[in-house]
Design brief:
The chain has helices spanning 7-12, 52-73, 119-133; strands spanning 13-18, 22-27, 34-39, 77-81, 92-97. It is of the alpha+beta class. It has one domain: HIT family, subunit A. The radius of gyration is 14 Å and the shape is globular. This is HIT family protein.
């Protein structure tokens, strides 16, 4: 069986690239630099559903995306979360937060309106992320 991305993630995000283990997505909300890693392992709900080796790879990918967030956007804080209450498919949010963002210091969920990327802006953001990952 091939990997299938949860329909809610497909509807809310844009594909950036595939890393060693995970699909990297960009949340379609231009209010914050919001990236999501989805390990391409069918049936994975919890991080413990990954092998120890896969867990190590996921941590390396989280570190990579965090470093990219810090270099590209200089956020005041990076929020990293694997909650999955609504979307059970294992996914990790990596969100750059700013002391002046509309939701600060509260969580983004339910506190930040979604403002979709404009087409040119979206394409530019995805290209910048791809370039940063493959340097």
């Amino acid at each position: 069986m091939s990997f299938m991305l949860d329909a809610r993630l497909s509807a809310d995000c844009w594909d950036v690239t595939d890393l060693e283990l995970s699909k990297l997505l960009l949340m379609d909300n231009r209010n914050l630099p919001w990236l999501i890693l989805v390990p391409r392992k069918d049936g994975a709900v919890e991080i413990t559903d990954l092998t120890v080796t896969e867990q190590q790879i996921l941590l390396q990918e989280i570190n990579l995306v965090t470093e990219i967030q810090q270099k590209m956007f200089n956020p005041d804080k990076i929020n990293t979360a694997a909650i999955g209450n609504i979307v059970p498919q294992l996914h990790v949010h990596i969100i750059g937060r700013f002391k002046n963002d509309a939701a600060w210091p509260a969580p983004v969920w339910g506190n930040l309106p979604a403002e979709k990327y404009h087409k040119g802006e979206l394409q530019q953001r995805i290209q910048l992320l791809k370039h940063a990952i493959h340097i």
